[in-house]
Design brief:
By secondary structure, the protein is of the alpha+beta class. It has 2 domains: 46 residues, no CATH class; 136 residues, Glucose Permease (Domain IIA) (Distorted Sandwich), CATH 2.70.70.10. It is 20% helix and 35% strand. It contains 2 helices and 14 strands; from the N terminus they run H-H-E-E-E-E-E-E-E-E-E-E-E-E-E-E. Strands 2, 5, 6, 7, 8, 9, 10, 11, 12 and 13 form a 10-stranded antiparallel sheet that branches. A two-stranded antiparallel ribbon has the order 1-14. 25% of the residues are buried.
């Protein structure tokens, strides 16, 4: 009815048909843009909140994030028996799944998963990998097993969370005690 009103309105009597069509296209374009912007805002709001879980909830924290006497430790080490199942800390897409990652031979077998807002989780020293590059994974989905590949002193999972080139303290994202398995973190959306 609005379209008919626009095309046949007496207020538009001095307008030619092409001018009326241009007006109609403008109206439809603005309406569509409003719907798209509103939908994008809803999707962006959903992506700002990522829930991570401990990839090996029964593991013992054997090394925390941060400066050590000899170097900076980019993640946390979660000690547990070789062969223990490792799960995806959050849903996402597998970016890396390999036995040797570039020049980082110390990492051993490794998986990197990309999550919302470009956050990534890194799992290394794995004994086995159950996902391939490009796979979509859900939070809690098995992705491999704990091992002792690369440079290690015993079986454990080395776990990192990255934002671009920045390493973030996984303790801010996951509970490092077996009694609490989830932590919700809100990541600011950059528009």
């Amino acid at each position: 009815m609005r379209i008919t009103t626009i095309l046949h309105s007496s207020n538009n009597a001095g307008m030619s048909l092409p001018q009326r069509l241009i007006m109609l296209c403008g109206f439809l374009g603005l309406t569509l843009a409003a719907v798209v912007v509103q939908s994008s805002a809803v999707v962006a709001a959903e992506l700002t909140s990522v829930v991570f879980q401990n990839p090996v909830p029964d593991a013992r924290l054997s090394s925390s994030f941060g400066q050590k006497a000899e170097r900076f430790h980019n993640g946390v080490d979660l000690a547990i028996s070789k062969g223990t199942q490792v799960v995806a800390s959050a849903g996402g897409r597998v970016l890396v799944s390999t036995d040797v990652y570039g020049d980082r031979v110390n990492y051993g077998k490794i998986i990197i998963i990309e999550h919302a807002n470009g956050l990534r989780s890194l799992y290394s020293h794995l004994d086995s990998r159950a996902v391939a590059v490009g796979d979509s994974v859900l939070a809690g989905q098995p992705i491999g097993t704990v091992g002792e590949t690369g440079k290690v002193t015993g079986p454990h999972l080395h776990f990192e969370i990255l934002d671009g080139d920045n390493r973030l303290d996984p303790g801010q994202f996951i509970a490092l005690s077996p009694s609490k398995t989830h932590v919700r973190v809100t990541v600011p959306t950059v528009i």
